[in-house]
Known about the structure:
Rossmann fold; seven-stranded parallel sheet; about 45% helix
Amino acid sequence: MNSLNIFITGGASGIGLGIAQALAADGHHIIVADINQDAATTAARQIEASGGSAQAMAVDVCNVQQVAALADDLADTPVDVLINNAGIQHVSRLEDFPAEKWQQLINIMLVGPALLTQAFLPGMRQRNFGRIVNVGSIHSVIASPYKSAYVAAKHGLLGFAKTVALETGDCDVTINTLCPAYVKTPLVEQQIAAQAKENNLTEEEVVSKIMLEPMPKKQFISVEELADTARFLISHSARNITGQTMILDGGWTAR
Length: 255
């Protein structure tokens, strides 16, 4: 495959960084986008230190003007692949869920991907090539208590992807959503602590009784599995896979 310019939000840590490192190792140029400029710069330098090609950008995916200007800002590095990965979590029963926090989760994980797709899609269409990969979640297809905003946002990504898939049937642009069960990232580590508090369990009990209990495979999903799936989805062989929900859940939803 030719070298592609890949824009990854939330690319400075966790799943985003793991996918960035894997795709950089394939020879692609990575644009590490993160709300934290220093973190993005550090991640880009790590990729370059490993022999990859990368640059850093500070991006607030909720800032309409900032996102709308991205295609022009990157005129010398037109984006071939958009990976919508930025995300946060808040665990709370709905009665206690701060309204502004609920709105923030929806803005980052649903409105943000729509704005970014809107920004880069005209260029993809013009060049007759584009790949959009949303990082969803097992919570795109099932629910868990105390995560109403997160579940709503991740469910919404699926409907968004299906709609854009229909709108891009006339060109070589695809959009799909990766839906992993729990991946051991800093975000999930924080969730373990929050769930332990909310459910009055130890952190070990949260892992065994809540996170891994529904999974026949009883193991966390690795970032490598997600990176390899993304690697396939951006390839020529996946040109007719679009609007799809790619579930990596160790058999969870087979029940």
